Amino acid sequence: xxxxxxxxxxxxxxxxxxxxxxxxxxxxxxxxxxxxxxxxxxxxxxxxxxxxxxxxxxxxxxxxxxxxxxxxxxxxxxxxxxxxxxxxxxxxxxxxxxxx
Length: 100
Known about the structure:
This protein is α+β, with helices and mostly antiparallel strands. The protein is 23% helix and 23% strand. Strand 3 and strand 4 form a beta hairpin.
């Protein structure tokens, strides 16, 4: 089991009723899917906010980062960077903006 740090945007922290980043226990390979599965299991109020209920795909205005690396278009089953698996960097869930 690996402990992964996750930083959420303010509106999702409020919905999950947490302050700051969360630490999640992830079993098996550390991937976007395993981290988000652990996040939704621990904070059921977040189900459907980051990923679509039916397809499991990332919502259009949600992005994933580690450091400066955008992981939003990577496969949800690709391993996350070692820094995330080691807990030295958080997995960032960011609300994207659109418009002009």
